[in-house]
Amino acid sequence: MWRSLKLDLSAHKAHWQEVTPEEVAYGGRYRTGQLLLEQEAWRLDPLSPENPLVFAIGPLAGTGFSNANRTSVGTRSPLTLGIKEANGGGTFGYALGQMKLAHLVLEGASPDWVVLRLTRDGQVFFDPAEELLGLGNFEAAQRLFAAYGRKIAFALLGPVGEYLGLLSGIAFSDTDGRPSRLAARGGVGAVMGAKRVKAIVLEVPGKAEVWDKPKVAESVRRYAGLLREDPLVMQFYNAIGTMGMADFQNAFGGLPVRNFREGRLAPPEAFRMGGQYIAPLNKARGGKHTHACMPGCVIQCSNVIVDEKGEEVVSPLEYETIGLLGTNCGLTDPDALARLNRLANDLGIDTIETGATLALLMEKGEGPWGDYAFMEAKLKALYTPSEEARFLAQGTARVGEALGLKRVPVIKRQAISAYDPRVVEATGITMMTTAQGADHTAGNAPRLETRAMGVGEILEASYTAQVNAAVNDSLGLCVFGGSVTNKQVEFITESVNAALGTSLTPAFWRELGEGVLRLEHRFNHLAGFSHEDDRLPAFFYEEPVPPKGYTARFRPEDLAPLYERLDQGS
């Protein structure tokens, strides 16, 4: 029997409820959006006790089905003021699936800081968390393991989230126990901090219960086989990881460089901030360049980066971090970036928002481009809630406004991720239209050379990517399996039916994806957003980006066909 759990933090009470198999199928991002809409969260101050914080998983979580154990975190964002779903991999969703806990809702605010602990047999404890306060994520994680044993999974709030910094995310444990898989975007950590929850600890049952075990086992084997036969999965994600996108975007001209002033950091043959340079160097030093962040994943796009002595620095180093905390700040040394990434993980912050914010300080002249010491000092300042830390932790839009800058790369107050919308146009349209703020994960099409395409084709590419991303997020699937998953709709539907005992048809896929987009669009409309909020910052329309010399072509008035679809049911 699947259940949901609502925790009244103010009263320290737990309320369990049975969840039907059909409701479990509509999980993850769909479930977070629906619950937020039902509870009218658009009316609420994002940092008030009333704003819910929802954790939801997909129907295959807890099994060995590859890359199916991501966790969606949903709330009204204190960063964008719209709806937010941030998700992460690791072991937290795996544990929720084995508990058959479809979603967990935090309501109210605890009188004192707590660690929420859920045992294998369904008991809920509100343990004191005072000894963890102020600690970085790595030290806090070790104390959780010392207190509760190694057979746990956790969601952990870093020190920036404790003082409600909008850079803060929520860190999930990875397969080795690192607090390094972040649901990072939108300030979801600040909402957890406002509820005075330092961590959520789950005892991992160790076994998943499914409707038809033989069929699910066969689905697990078949899906793994399909992934291993897919060239994009094995030759790109498995071999190089997401950092390979840095090589592509540098050559393509869509890489953010020095606050989006350029689209290429260096000639491709001299570029050192991508997988073609970093992967062989890391392997030669003894690092891992094929690593699974969640149990059962055969894509294994994660990595463990080591220094010249072979000692671990960070896991993982990914493309978005390379783009925003790296090249967008003028960094050219991957070792320096890895150390900054480690600091960011310890702080529990979004490297996209953080990198975009630091680039604004450099734009203002407060530090030279690519100055590692300057960046390190700013990150270290975030550990304690000083006036400087609280200022930086507001995020890119608010810092840019305070500094009086015109070149502030945000949409709906959230930093644009590592795809220049002048060049990577379909992804740019996604970042404009999604209710999530400037978030590429809402529907990415990073390799399209759109200048050779018609406008209708480009809009359709963005919309299709958005629908598929919404489905994957709702099913708890990592989008890096999309080259297989999105083509195997009937098989994925059959796998869900085998796990739950449902009778879904392949039409379920599109109904689920479009349902998510309309829920989120409706929420933002009720929260006061209009299509004008989708407009790119002016400099994207005014400044040609080298080397291609493109300016942005799309404005909200050009996106009417997408809005017509999103408005259905609003």
UniProtKB/TrEMBL annotation:
Domain Aldehyde ferredoxin oxidoreductase N-terminal span(s) in chain numbering: 1-207
Pfam families: AFOR_C, AFOR_N
Keyword 4Fe-4S attached: yes
Coiled coil: none
Signal peptide positions on this chain: none
Cofactor(s) the protein needs: [4Fe-4S] cluster; tungstopterin
Domain of life: Bacteria
Entry keyword set: 4Fe-4S, Iron, Iron-sulfur, Metal-binding, Oxidoreductase
SMART domains: AFOR_N
Sequence similarity: Belongs to the AOR/FOR family.
Full protein name: Aldehyde ferredoxin oxidoreductase
Source organism (scientific name): Thermus tengchongensis
